[in-house]
């Protein structure tokens, strides 16, 4: 079984290396000199950056910054490697290494068919995790193992050794076992279906929790919008995610997702725009299919890397941008693939030598013909510095807040800190041009002092720290990461505490009731709570109350809303934002029309859809036009039948033909189309027939 090359139906990536890599990790070889960044012309028009400190997102968890370790990496347990990871802020480490997990047997530390380096056993890994100060995430062998083997591992780890290992995943990329036509993951089970995986996840969870009921057990899901998302195979009741959650949802504590966006450096960097919708779909799938109390199920992203520029600046930019976006959406850990990986295809990316190495740290190896060698062993690559920047930017306990720009090549993220500081991360994805930016703040007034700045430029050997400039403007070098840390203009100690996590209930087409736990007493008495909607980086106040619930009215049917609640005290001071609550209003409760959109087939980047239009009125419809809007810009109708189909921007227009223009009272008609998508395929939530909003069937 070849784990060194990817099947053609998924993004190509250099993954787990074998004996040659493992041997190279035992060596420390000289490397090539790294040249400085080439000069870049500054773009003429400033980029407008907006930061809204009142529009709160998720809080940074203690396990946020993670990496992968692998049993074929002879440096796994060394003090030098561990100290480098600690310095970069790593707080979660995964073991025993991707697809190797499904051939690894922990008792005798073997991986039949693969290479196991010396000094990489479980106890060595745990010693390294403790030196780093990181929590372990352990992959139980699904492909060639058993629930009993996994339970014995839990017993050894937590009962015998007292490690307190909390996080355990059942298998790696088990959808890659051939069930969908591509096979790279070991799976000895005769039944390779998603249904069988889910049934066995239940057995694993029962066996493992019988040993230690305090552990958390996770199941493998696919990334929405990435193969094999959307595909139903064999006798499964639906695609992988739906099947696994429907059967195993009540037994699991988290889900485990991988993402390799693939493509050129520019394409990988642009695809971070998919993350918000992918996270939304994952949450929606959990709610729909995972059973009662699905909100308790966490989301982890345990493998992540770019398609091009794995150890140069695109990797660093992608890491910081993707980690931030995922953590904003409440993911509890993001883990880079991986610590050491080995030299691959050598190229020039952004004016720098890229070794095609998926590792954070150099393996010190050379190409087969010795024509090119990496820098000395454990030399940090650019993504390592990107991880270090994340450690400086978003610390455990910080709260992400909304930040955005008006330039696709420049992205922004921000966190609010307990001491009142605000940190802003700016990512310039333009390889050729510096970009001046102007920064506008809502809910935060910076002091006049120069901000503390952290900068990582193309080709740099590390993050540079300084204190200069102003909170209102900066110039971002080409292909760079910049973090500004700003002090508030006045102390924050007298401000009230935020309310607890809001929840939404009684959601209809026009209203929803938002509830929260009261803010703890602090300073002046609480006067009221204010409810705000996030419109991008603009907060729109929807109402206020002295109580701990509020019914929001006059909402738009079929619309997604994200709301926050703030505390205001009798002195007029306002708290931090609560965490957000997101919900989608239903279609109209009653209408003269109903629309049902169903999927006939799906192949991972395209699908066949059917639209049924039902006339609920007392009179026939004579000629009709149906419209809807896709939630994203990467969804489109490629062709259609039984109607005239057009798409302008995100808006789809479906017009009747002479054959079906008349829909009798109580009757219906159906039209079909072929759709395409290059990111998460988010269904539309509202349909309008001849100007009338329809109920959604």
UniProtKB/TrEMBL annotation:
The Fibronectin type-III domain sits at: 498-588
The biased composition feature labelled Polar residues covers: 502-516
Q: Pfam families from the xrefs? A: CBM_2, fn3
Q: Which keywords fit this entry according to its UniProt record? A: Carbohydrate metabolism, Glycosidase, Hydrolase, Polysaccharide degradation
Query: Which InterPro entries does the UniProt entry name for this protein?
Result: CBD2, CBM2/CBM3_carb-bd_dom_sf, CBM2_carb-bd_dom_sf, FN3_dom, FN3_sf, GH, Glyco_hydro_b, Ig-like_fold
Q: Where is this region: Disordered?
A: 490-519
Give the protein name, as stated in the record: Cellulose binding domain-containing protein
Natural source organism: Micromonospora antibiotica
């Amino acid at each position: 079984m070849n784990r060194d090359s990817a099947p053609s139906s998924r993004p190509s990536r250099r993954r787990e290396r074998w004996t040659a890599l493992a041997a190279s990790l035992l060596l420390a070889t000289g490397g090539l000199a790294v040249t400085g960044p080439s000069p870049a012309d500054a773009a003429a028009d400033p980029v407008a950056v907006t930061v809204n400190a009142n529009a709160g997102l998720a809080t940074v968890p203690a396990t946020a910054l993670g990496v992968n370790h692998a049993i074929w990496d002879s440096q796994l347990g060394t003090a030098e490697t561990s100290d480098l990871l600690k310095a970069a802020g790593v707080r979660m480490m995964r073991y025993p290494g991707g697809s190797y997990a499904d051939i690894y047997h922990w008792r005798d530390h073997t991986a039949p068919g693969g290479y196991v380096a010396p000094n990489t056993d479980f106890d060595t890994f745990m010693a390294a995790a403790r030196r780093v100060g990181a929590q372990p995430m352990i992959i139980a062998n699904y492909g060639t193992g058993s629930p009993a083997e996994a339970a014995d591992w839990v017993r050894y780890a937590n009962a015998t050794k007292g490690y307190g290992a909390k996080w355990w995943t059942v298998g790696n990329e088990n959808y890659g076992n051939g069930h969908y036509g591509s096979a790279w993951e070991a799976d000895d089970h005769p039944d390779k279906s998603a249904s069988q995986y889910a049934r066995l996840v239940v057995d694993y969870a029962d066996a493992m929790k019988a040993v230690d009921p305090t552990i958390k057990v996770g199941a493998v899901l696919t990334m929405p919008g990435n193969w094999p998302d959307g595909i139903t195979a064999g006798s499964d009741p639906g695609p992988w995610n739906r099947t696994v959650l429907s059967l195993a949802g009540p037994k699991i504590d988290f889900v485990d997702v991988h993402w390799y966006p693939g493509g050129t450096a520019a394409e990988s960097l642009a695809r971070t725009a998919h993350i918000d919708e992918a996270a939304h779909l994952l949450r929606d799938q959990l709610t729909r299919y995972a059973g009662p109390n699905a909100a308790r199920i966490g989301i982890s992203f345990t493998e992540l890397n770019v398609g091009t520029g794995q150890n140069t600046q695109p990797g660093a930019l992608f890491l910081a941008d993707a980690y931030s976006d995922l953590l904003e959406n409440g993911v509890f850990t993001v883990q880079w693939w991986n610590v050491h990986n080995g030299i691959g295809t050598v190229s020039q990316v952004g004016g720098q030598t890229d070794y095609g190495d998926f590792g954070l740290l150099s393996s010190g190896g050379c190409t087969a013909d010795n024509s090119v060698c990496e820098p000395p062993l454990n030399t940090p690559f650019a993504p390592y510095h990107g991880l270090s920047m994340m450690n400086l930017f978003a610390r455990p306990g910080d709260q992400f807040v909304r930040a955005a720009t008006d330039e696709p090549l420049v992205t922004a993220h921000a966190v609010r800190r307990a001491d009142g500081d605000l940190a802003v991360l700016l990512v310039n994805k333009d390889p050729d041009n510096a970009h001046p930016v102007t920064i506008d703040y809502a809910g935060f007034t910076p002091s006049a002092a120069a901000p503390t700045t952290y900068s990582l430029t193309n080709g740099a050997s590390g993050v540079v720290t300084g204190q200069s400039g102003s909170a209102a403007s900066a110039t971002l070098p080409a292909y760079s990461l910049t973090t500004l840390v700003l002090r508030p203009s006045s102390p924050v100690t007298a401000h009230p505490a935020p309310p607890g996590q809001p929840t939404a209930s009684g959601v209809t087409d026009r209203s929803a009731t938002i509830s929260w736990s009261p803010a703890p007493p602090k300073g002046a008495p609480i006067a009221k709570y204010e409810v705000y909607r996030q419109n991008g980086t603009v907060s729109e106040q929807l109402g206020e109350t002295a109580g701990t619930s509020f019914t929001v009215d006059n909402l738009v049917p079929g619309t997604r809303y994200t709301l926050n609640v703030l505390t205001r005290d009798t002195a007029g001071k306002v708290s931090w934002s609560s965490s957000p609550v997101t919900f989608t209003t239903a279609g109209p409760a009653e209408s003269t029309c109903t629309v049902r959109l169903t999927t006939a087939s799906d192949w991972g980047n395209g699908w066949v859809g059917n639209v049924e239009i039902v006339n609920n009125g007392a009179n026939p419809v004579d000629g009709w036009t149906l419209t809807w809007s896709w939630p994203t810009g990467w969804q489109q109708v490629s062709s259609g039948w039984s109607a005239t189909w057009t798409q302008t921007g995100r808006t789809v227009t479906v017009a009747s033909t002479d054959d079906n223009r008349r829909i009798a009272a109580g009757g219906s008609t159906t039209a079909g189309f072929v759709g395409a998508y290059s990111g998460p395929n988010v269904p539309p939530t509202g349909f309008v027939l001849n100007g009338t909003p329809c109920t959604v069937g």
